[in-house]
Task: inverse folding
């Protein structure tokens, strides 16, 4: 009985150590460090500075331009008014390269229209399918 318990404990400790090691490995992947290159920076809504070779992730006030809610204090990047062509296109596909404005209210409820990583879709605009 004691040997079985000891084996279970050893296996448990090995699994925990492996989990911790995998966590460190996962955290070291390039996608978790958006400041390292333009593509990773822009994928999380940052603005890449070629001059400084740095990712500019900021927390903007309401009304400031944004590409993702992660750039805003409120956490919400509100989309601009769509053109007629965009309104037609959104029925079939997401629209990319959209710049919205940071939502002023930090306490939004329900479905709030959003720009997510520079993209709007039917779902992010709360449109019925």
Result:
């Amino acid at each position: 009985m004691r040997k079985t318990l000891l084996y279970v404990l050893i296996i448990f400790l090995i699994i925990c150590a492996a989990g911790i090691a995998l966590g460190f490995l996962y955290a070291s992947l390039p996608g978790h460090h958006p400041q390292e290159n333009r593509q990773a920076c822009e994928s999380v809504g940052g603005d890449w500075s070629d001059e400084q070779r740095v990712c500019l992730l900021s927390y903007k006030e309401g009304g400031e331009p944004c590409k993702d809610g992660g750039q805003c204090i409120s956490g919400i990047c509100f989309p601009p008014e769509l053109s007629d062509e965009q309104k037609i296109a959104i029925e079939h596909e997401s629209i990319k390269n959209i710049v919205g404005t940071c939502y002023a209210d930090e306490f939004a409820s329900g479905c709030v229209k959003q720009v997510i990583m520079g993209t709007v879709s039917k779902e992010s605009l709360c449109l019925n399918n």
Notes: The longest strand covers residues 47-49.
